[in-house]
Amino acid sequence: MLAGELTSREFTFRIHQRHGHELALTERLAALDDEYDILEYGDRTVDQVDAEVAAEARRLAAHPAVAVEPADLRS
Q1: Total domain count for the chain?
Q2: How many of the other CB atoms lie within 10 Å of CB of 52?
Q3: Containing structural domain, residue 38
Q4: Looking at CB atoms within 10 Å, which of 19, 30, 46, 61 has the fewest?
């Protein structure tokens, strides 16, 4: 999404579809996917939700909470 390969909406939809609200790391993105679904009933705009998705994606990219271990180091 940050590289421009997905829209904010597509990004949140994929995260939500794959992990639901169960994964703490991505729960905010799943909640933002829900926001897209109710935009017509609320007072937020697509641009506002898009901006929040981008901010959350940048936050996760800058400070990953899960350490990635190279496959060759696993037991």
Answers
A1: 1
A2: 18
A3: 8-62
A4: 61
